[in-house]
What we know:
mainly beta; single chain; 11 strands; 0% helix; 128 residues
Amino acid sequence: QLQLVESGGGLVQPGGSLRLSCATSGNLLNLFAVAWFRQAPGKDREGISCISSSGDSTDYRDSVKGRFTISRDNAKNTVYLQMDNLKPEDTAVYYCAAEFHAPRPCQYSSSFYMHAYWGQGTQVTVSS
């Protein structure tokens, strides 16, 4: 069983930055590809970024490409999402998901995370 805990969310002004973390106890996260998802009020959950288990493959949804950076530190059992130049439309609950049987290169479509481990989410609000 893999328990994921997201942190780092909060309230930030447009143009600001946040770094989300997705951490787990134990040392198994290095076996899993990880994706970040978000769900805004009244909208479907959408995948926004992914990283392979080794970190050599990443991908981003167009709406966040160039502003968000996914990375991982397997020694710390943590995956990060650096979010820069945040916009009001980035407001959502952000979730991480870890999938053992993940395709390569990584994919952020939710269809690949149907049997993944999920965190509880962290709220990101971008507002002036």
